[in-house]
Design a protein that fits this description.
heterodimer, A: mainly alpha, B: disordered C terminus
C-alpha cells in the first residue's frame, strides 16, 4: 500500500470533517462532519505505524474497530437528540435561535417543551 | 499500477466527501455518506485492514446510513421546517482556512514524524500462538485486550439506554393495517434476509481465524432485521418489551459474567481456561453477535411497517 497517500487522505478528512463541524449550521451535517473527522483519525491511526512495520498492525486495527463501534453508538444518540430537539419546535441552528424570538412573538424553542413527554403526532 | 488505483480511490473519497459536506439536500448527503463508507472500505482493504473494512461496510455505511435515512424520514414527518435549510453564513470565510491549516498540520505530523515506539504487530504475531485463536486482530480484541471489548459492548448498551431515555414517551408511528407486500420487494427480502443470517453465522465463526467477528456479524444481522421492519414483514417491537431488553443486555451480561468468573475462579480477569479457551471465545462472540444485532435494530424501534420512505425521499 501507499502509506503516504493514505496518510494525506486521513489528514484531508480530518480537515474537511472539522470544517463541516464548525462551519455548517444544520445539525445533520455537523454529525456527518464528526463521522468524517473520525474516519480521518482512524486512517491516520492505522497508516502511521504501517510506515515502520510495513503491514497493518493488529493493535491499531483492533482500536479502529472499537472506534467505529463507539462512533455508531455516539452517532445514534446524537441523531436521537436532534430529532427530539426538532420535535420541541426549536429552530434548526444556533444562530437562528438568537434571531427568531425577536422576530416572532410566539414562544419559540425551549418554551415549546411544555408538551409533556412526547413529540407532536 | 496499484499506485494509480490508490490515487483514483483517494480522489474518489475526497470528491464524495466534499460533495457530501457542502450539499444542501439532506437525503443527498445521506446517500453520499453511504457511498463514502463503501469507498472508505476499499481504502481499508488497500491499507491491509480487512477487519476494519468489514466493520466500515456493516457499521459505518450500513447501520449509520440507515440511522441517517431514518432521521431524515422522522424529521420530514415531525418537523419538516427543519429540513428547509437556512442560508449558510457568509461571514465564516475563516473556516476553510482553519480546516485547511488543520489538515496541513495533520499531514505534516503524519508523514514527517516517525512513531517513537516500536510497532506492536510483530510482538502480537509472535505470541498469537499462546491464545486460543489464530487471527491476530481477534486475539487482541478477545484475549490480549479483552477488557477493551467488554467496555465497548458496555458503551454500545449505554448508548441504547441513552436513546431510550431521549425518546421516552415519543409518539409511536402507527403501523399501517396491512403491510404492503410488493412482489419485487418480497422476493428481494426473501433472498437477502436468509443470506444475511448465513453470512452473520459465518462471520462469527470466521473471527477466530480470519477477518470477521461479532461486531460485523451483529451489524449484518441487524441490517436483516431493519429490512424486515422497513419492508413490513415484521411489526415494530416496543423498547419496553422484556424480551428485547434481555436480548440487548445479554452480550454485556455474558461478557461481564465471564470476566467475573475468570477473575474469581481463574488466574486473572478474562484469562480463559487453557483447555476450553476457544469455546469461551466462540461462545462470547456468539452471544455478542445476537446482542449487538438487537441493540442496533432497537435504534429503529419506530420504523413503520409498510414501504420504506427511502423511495419518497429520492
Amino acid at each position: 500500500m501507499n502509506a503516504t497517500l493514505f496518510q494525506l487522505l486521513g489528514a484531508a478528512l480530518v480537515g474537511a470533517g472539522f470544517g463541516a463541524f464548525v462551519g455548517r449550521r444544520h445539525l445533520l451535517w455537523r454529525i456527518i462532519g464528526v463521522n468524517v473527522l473520525g474516519s480521518g483519525v482512524f486512517l491516520l491511526l492505522l497508516t502511521v505505524p504501517a510506515r515502520v512495520g510495513g503491514t497493518a498492525d493488529a493493535v491499531p486495527q483492533a482500536m479502529v474497530l472499537t472506534g467505529i463501534v463507539v462512533t455508531v453508538a455516539a452517532t445514534a444518540l446524537a441523531l436521537a437528540l436532534s430529532v427530539r430537539l426538532a420535535a420541541t419546535g426549536a429552530p434548526v441552528d444556533d444562530d437562528a435561535q438568537e434571531a427568531v424570538p425577536s422576530a416572532a412573538a410566539k414562544p419559540a424553542g425551549p418554551p415549546a417543551r411544555s408538551r409533556p413527554g412526547g413529540g407532536p403526532a | 499500477m496499484t499506485v494509480v488505483f490508490d490515487a483514483v480511490l483517494v480522489l474518489l473519497v475526497l470528491a464524495v466527501t466534499l460533495r457530501m459536506l457542502t450539499s444542501r439536500e439532506p437525503f443527498e448527503a445521506v446517500v453520499l455518506f453511504v457511498a463514502f463508507g463503501l469507498a472508505m472500505a476499499l481504502v481499508w482493504v488497500r491499507a491491509g485492514a480487512v477487519d476494519v473494512a468489514l466493520a466500515e461496510i456493516a457499521l459505518g455505511a450500513g447501520v449509520t446510513g440507515a440511522l441517517l435515512v431514518n432521521t431524515v424520514r422522522r424529521l420530514r414527518a415531525k418537523a419538516p421546517e427543519w429540513l428547509e435549510l437556512p442560508e449558510p453564513s457568509v461571514a465564516r470565510a475563516a473556516v476553510p482556512v482553519a480546516c485547511g491549516a488543520l489538515a496541513a498540520a495533520a499531514a505534516f505530523a503524519a508523514t514527517r514524524f516517525a512513531p517513537a515506539a516500536e510497532p506492536l504487530g510483530p510482538r502480537i504475531a509472535a505470541r498469537v500462538a499462546e491464545t486460543p485463536v489464530s487471527h491476530p486482530v481477534t486475539a487482541v480484541l478477545l484475549d490480549f485486550r479483552a477488557y477493551d471489548t467488554l467496555l465497548e459492548i458496555a458503551v454500545l448498551f449505554g448508548g441504547l439506554v441513552s436513546v431510550w431515555a431521549v425518546e421516552r414517551g415519543r409518539a409511536a408511528v402507527p403501523p399501517p393495517a396491512t403491510p404492503a407486500r410488493e412482489p419485487v420487494l418480497a422476493a428481494l427480502v426473501g433472498w437477502i434476509v436468509p443470506l444475511a443470517v448465513i453470512a452473520a453465522v459465518y462471520l462469527t465463526w470466521m473471527g477466530s481465524h480470519g477477518p470477521g467477528g461479532a461486531f460485523q456479524a451483529g451489524a449484518l444481522l441487524a441490517g436483516a432485521g431493519v429490512l424486515l421492519l422497513a419492508a413490513g414483514f415484521a411489526q415494530p417491537y416496543r423498547s419496553d418489551s422484556a424480551a428485547m431488553r434481555l436480548f440487548a443486555a445479554a452480550g454485556l451480561l455474558t461478557f461481564a459474567g465471564a470476566a467475573l468468573y475468570t477473575a474469581v475462579a481463574g488466574d486473572a480477569m478474562l484469562r480463559y481456561p487453557a483447555a476450553a479457551g476457544y469455546w469461551w471465545i466462540l461462545g462470547i462472540e456468539a452471544v455478542l453477535t445476537v446482542s449487538i444485532a438487537a441493540i442496533l435494530a432497537e435504534q429503529f424501534a419506530d420504523v413503520p411497517a409498510g414501504p420504506s420512505s427511502a423511495g419518497e425521499d429520492a
